[in-house]
Every structure is written in structure tokens, then in C-alpha cells.
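User: Can you predict the 3D structure of Insulinase-like protein? Sequence below.
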Amino acid sequence: MKKSIMAISTALLLGGVATAQKIAFEEYNLDNGMHVILHHDPTAPVVITSVMYHVGSKDENPEKTGFAHFFEHLLFEGTANIKRGEWFKIVTSNGGTNNANTSDDRTYYYEVFPSNNLELALWMESERLMHPVINQIGVDTQNGVIKEEKSSRYDNRPYGKIINVVKENMFKNHPYKWSTIGSMEHLDTATLEDFKEFNKKFYIPNNAVLVVAGDFEKVVTKEWIEKYFGPIQKGEKIKKQTFIEEPITQTLKATYYDPNIQIPMLVASYRTPSMKTRDARVLDFISSYLSDGKSSKLYKKVVDEKKMALQIGAVGFSQEDYGMYILYGLPMGTHSSEDLLKEIDEEIVKIQTDLISEKDYQKLLNQFESQYVNNNSNVEGIAENLAKYYLLYGDINLINTEIDLYHSITREEIREVAKKYLNPNQRLLLDYVPATETAQN
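Assistant: Sure. Here are the predicted C-alpha cells for Insulinase-like protein:
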């Protein structure tokens, strides 16, 4: 009885927080086109300064891939006023941390400092934008770093090539077909001028959003932002290309031989719409219902009950133009990939035919409420979400309203969206198998 009361109390608390937690922010533009977002939170004496650039691997020349990810590394090399090798020393010696990451759609840099070092963070990010040093020694150094990253994270890691192989087969026209890390051959043959041109085109204030979140004083912060970012020259407007993929109308099949594995993996991937669409959010529900964690339908059925697989799950790629829903499984014992696929298809057909139970529907709502709370539980997460919703979704207030969109999804919609996207003739079936001597020869 006591546990039941505690569980009810926790559920009510999460629901209340998800409903009440509103993220206050202020936004404005500098004259050079840079968008600025401020979120004041004095609960801890820290401040996050971040810049998200609307450039990812999809913006690259097909003959020069890997540039966006390369710049994630290269722009820590130094600036006109920050000597090579000094960036991280400055950050750590002032009590801060920093990092960056790249996707197919954007590149994100951030620093976390004690509040009294906000001006330093703003100056450093403005230096990265205004005065980057792009020279041969930096390019050569980071080329070596990225080769090591590719080797450890992809080439020599068991199942490390799955996402890349899926992308290659799922996209024919869209730049999503190549990996974010890109081609080492392209990077090896790129000239210094190639890198400078990429920087000049994409690392401009009117292709970026600056977010300051945490404990700061607004008036002086705005003065510092104008002081350090205001003088940066506006760049030429970037013309984004539109790439259209024809619908998948028959099952795609592919095989990949991985020398790093001993157990084959079944991969079934479905192309999904832009993350900005309502259908994409419904598919988030379906993904969670089918394959999110050990309480999901597929895990309980295939792993726990029938003991057919060592593991089963999914990876959802929600992206600006298209997405992917990738189901995977490791068959166990005498069971085959075909056996796992049959079980997966049976569960999908159930969703397409019948409404999920009210109990399962409420469980999904609770999961997404909890996820919403967690995503906005600290200023680091809030800063990135503010940048993301502005730059990629075109609606910054989704940080407050997206949970309402999920609440408005009905069980009927779940059934209809499953019918629309999750059919055998609309997917890639990838046999990801161990490399044998015969296969390699």
C-alpha cells in the first residue's frame, strides 16, 4: 500500500512539473543577423554560453564530405588572440568546461563557466567566429585526430558501421546518405583554401544563434554581446538546397560484412518524415511503445518471454528533412534474423490493426512527460533546446509547447501513422553479418 501511494505521488509530481515548468526567455537580433536568446536562471552561480550554426554534413559538397565535423575540431585550434593550444587551458584555468558536437543538420559549441566569467565566454565565442586561425598545421593535426576517431568509433568497433550503411541505402539523393564524419580521402585531398571557403560561407553571424543561459545580469550581458558580436560582419545569405527522396515502394535489401563481430544483426529501417511534422512525433510514440527499453513490447516478447534474441531495440533519427526508424536485433541460439523479423512484423501489424490499450497509452504519456522534464532539468539542456527549437524547428516556444503536442496525439493516430509508414514495402532490410574469409575474398 505504501509503495502504491508513493508511485501515485511520483506520477502526480511529474505531471505537475511537466505542466507547470515554463521556460522563460528573451530573444532579439543583432544588426548583423545573429539571433540572440537569453534565459535567466539564478538558482546556481553558473552560466552557459553556446552558439549553434546552421551547418551540418548535409551542407557539404558531395566531393568534399566531412567538413562540418572537421570544423567542430578545427575551431578549437586557436584564433588571432588565442594562441594555438591555449583554448582548453583558458577554459579550465577559469573553472569552466566546454565541448562541441556535429550532426547532419547543425554544429554546436558551448562553454559552462562560473557566472563571473561570462564576459570571457562571450569573448572566446566571438573570437571563434571573428578571428579563427585556419592554417596547415591545424588542418594536419585535426586530420590525424579525426582518423583516430573514425578508427575507434566506426572501423574497429563492433557494429560500428550500421548507421552509415543504413544511410547509404536509405537515401539516394539527399546528403543524409553520407556519414557525418565524412570521407578520409576527401579530407586528405582538401586544400587549405577549401577549408577557408567553407568557414567563410557557413561560420557567419546570420547563420547562427547565440544562447546565454543561467545566472547573469541582463543589462550588462546585452552590452557585452553587442561589444563582442556586434562588430562581426554579416555574411552572404546562404541558399539552402532542397533534396527530395522518392517514396520507398518496395523492400530494399543489403548485406554488410563486419570483421569485428561474431553474431549477425538484423536491421530493419523505415524512412520517416521531418522531425518538425506531427507524424514524426506520433512515430516517437510508436518507437517508444515497440522498442524503448526493457518494458517495451518487443523486448518483453522476444528477449524475456521467447528467449529468441540477446538484444532488440531501436534507434530513432529525427532530423530536419527526413528521419529514420531503425529496428535491430541479435538472434540467439538456433533462431535466425528471419525469426526476429517475423516477431517484429507481428507487433507492427497489431498496432496497425488495433488501438493500443488505454493503459499503454497512459504509460507513453507518462514517459514523454518525464522525458520533457529531464530535458529541461538543467541550464545546459535548456540552452541547447532553445538553440535547436529556434534554428531547426523555426519555433523557439516549442520548448514549452511540444509536450502539449504529444498530449494531443490519440490512439487512433498511432494506428493510422503505423499504417502509413511501417509497411514491409517501405523499408530497408540489412543483414549485418560477421565477415568470413569467403565473404572478404
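The longest strand covers residues 322-331. The chain has 17 helices and eleven strands.
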